[in-house]
């Protein structure tokens, strides 16, 4: 992928992957699984597109049955389900708002009913909104960003834990903004910093239960969140300031999650 993409803008969040040009590379076409996650069951929030989709397909290629939650991007979610099932694994899609604790409990119940258990949780769903000045950040946006990005991780993890056993894994998506900050994404970057602390603290709490907790902090990746957040001009510049002078692809991030979900990372937590 070149350093820039065509100018484009989506009018609402969450964005739709099917409307993006060029399409993100999120189907893990070149990835060859070796059954690292055989007979496992995974639940991924925000699994309809972008990083979540690539992780879902990668997990399936490694032998896991995969359930995803998503808000209302039904076409994207249906395509992710199709790609999971192409691997020969079972899939499940559950629409709803993870910022609602009742939905988190309901979604987990559906997964357990369908697959019997949950071995891997990926807290991935997030939203971001550009505000040039803190004074212009509305109360409802501030609350909404925290509810989706960090409260949702608490809600979903709390609902999943009773169904996990020793050897299970939790992986939280944070961001480079947790460490570098971002001048126009104050609320988003703050939630990502909270996710880092949540990950480190939860890893200590669950150590004696044999459940590992880790995080992945992506840089600029080409996902629907980008055209749904920025102007056409800013979207076209996405990733150009990165060391590789281009945005990353979801397929280039997903192997990190596969590693952290598998026994390859058995001595890593927090």
How does this structure look, described?
It is globular, with a radius of gyration of 17 Å. It is built from 8 helices and 6 strands. The protein is α/β, with parallel strands linked by helices and 270 residues long. The chain has one domain: Rossmann fold, CATH 3.40.50. α1 packs parallel to α2 and α3 runs parallel beside α4. The protein starts with 40 loop residues before the first strand and ends in a 9-residue tail after the last helix. It has a 6-stranded parallel β-sheet, sandwiched between helices. β2, α2 and β3 form a beta-alpha-beta unit. The mean pLDDT is 95.
Detail the topology: elements first, then pairings.
Elements: E1 41-45, H1 50-61, E2 65-70, H2 74-86, E3 91-95, H3 101-115, E4 120-123, H4 139-160, E5 169-173, H5 177-180, H6 186-205, E6 212-216, H7 232-236, H8 250-261
Parallel strand pairs: 1-2, 1-4, 2-3, 4-5, 5-6
Helix pairs in contact: 1-2, 1-8, 3-4, 4-6
List keywords for this structure.
270 residues, alpha/beta, Rossmann fold, 6-stranded parallel β-sheet, 6 strands, 11% strand
Quickly give the structural class: alpha/beta
Reading the helices and strands in chain order gives: EHEHEHEHEHHEHH
Number of DSSP helical runs: 8
Global outline: globular
Terminal CA distance reads 33 Å
CATH class group: Alpha Beta
Number of strands: 6
Low-pLDDT segments, ≥5 res: none
C-alpha Rg (nearest Å)? 17 Å
The fraction of residues assigned to DSSP E strands is 5-15%
CATH architecture: 3-Layer(aba) Sandwich
Q: What is the total number of structural domains?
A: 1
